[in-house]
Amino acid sequence: MTERVHNFSAGPCTLPLSVLEESQAEFVDYHGAGMSLIEMSHRGKHFVAVHEEAIDLVRTVYGVPDEFDVLFLQGGATLQFAMIPMNLLKSGEKGAYVNSGTWAKGAIADAQHYGDVYTAWDGTDCNFTRMPNTDEIEIQSGTRYLHLTSNETIGGIRFAHWPKVDVPLIGDMSSDYMSRPVPWDRFDLVYGGAQKNLGPAGMALVIIRKTVARENNQNIGRYLRYDIQADKDSMFNTPPVFPIYMLGKVLKWMRDQGGVEAMERQAEDKAGILYRAIDQSSGYYRCPVDVDSRSVMNVVFRLPTEDLEKTFLSGADAAGLLNLKGHRSVGGIRASIYNALPKEGVQALATFMSEFQSAHPA
Are residues 121 and 110 in contact, defined by beta-carbon separation less than 8 angstroms? Predict the structure, then answer.
């Protein structure tokens, strides 16, 4: 096999090597069936077992209480931007949103088509360099929920502490899903695309309180109704078979690593390596994010000039440190260090940063 590179892609992203190798071995002939799992009926015994095990693993690894349903839906997190207000906002109710950056803006824009929504905190004035404190979030009367983006992939900011407000929380956790425990008593719904920490692209993992799923608006298309998806165990139509299969394998890997608590410790450790490299560079590397809001999944930074950034990226590619270019909307450098990225990759990047600074003084 070609030597594996250090892949810092923001998504789709690196997956555990053992998971890739195991799925490779099973791909053509799944458990002696003479065919691949992705060729089988989604209602056959092989896939039903995979599906049910994946649901159980979500509950076990993430500590999901029994009063929540686990749904595997197509359309990624972006479809949830619309499904949430479609299902949850009734006449006279409002949806509150924290505008923390690019993905929060998307959620707000889509929600406006389906209900009365407002911005409870806006990060525009600080150029989206931090998350709000609870006392900065303004909740209006008649609010059904507060929607937050737990980690902004592009801006490199996160909620280090969950807000404590008098309405249920809804969380888009796409880019820090299962990287830390969730206080389930505060949430009505948690969702995210699978392609960051959980598997390949093509699926959203939605975890919704059972009572909420069944008190929804029923005057919408059937696929878009949480109650139908929950009652059918995400089998209303053909589910995203391969992402569910891979999710189960990634969750087994996480379980064997020590679960979400271990993922949290490892994330803090890996992020700390890069932030120390930035903070100890005498300003050569600059992270625009307030220290208290720094993401431990997406570390963003700038160099003294854009020309140096181009040289940095070219040298990093040559060193096997790939996909470090910042999002096109903000530029700079972004290192996405999701659960499956080995610590050795982060250490290699920190070493490269130090050597690059010595070789290219500003």
Answer: no
The highest-level CATH class for domain 259-359 is alpha beta
CA triplet 54, 58, 62: central angle to 5 degrees?
160
The structure tokens listed for 14 are 């690196």
Catalytic site residue from 105, 196, 270, 325: 196
pTM here is 0.97
pLDDT for the residue 102: 96
**Which of 314, 256, 243 minimizes the C-alpha distance to 51?**
243
Tell me the C-alpha distance between 253 and 339, whole Å.
Answer: 10
pLDDT value, residue 362: 87
Candidates 3.40.640.10, 3.40.50.2000, 3.30.470.20, 3.40.50.880; correct CATH number of 18-256?
3.40.640.10
Q: Is 121 a catalytic residue?
A: no
**Cβ pair 319, 313 in contact under 8 A:** no
Q: Domain residue spans in the chain?
A: 18-256, 259-359
Is 172 annotated as catalytic? Answer: yes
Calpha distance 150→147 (Å, rounded): 9
- In the numeric block, the tokens 């690196």 are attached to 14
- Among 232, 266, 287, residue whose Cα is nearest residue 339: 266
pLDDT of residue 238: 96
Across 138-149, b (16+ Cβ under 10 Å) vs e yields: ebeeebbbbbbb
Candidate list 103, 121, 188, 249, residue with the active-site label: 103
Torsion from C-alpha of 95, 101, 107, 111, nearest 10 degrees:
50
d(CA 45, CA 351): 49
Locate tokens 């700038």: which residue? Answer: 302
Which is the catalytic residue, given 172, 176, 188, 227? 172
pLDDT at residue 1, as a whole number: 62
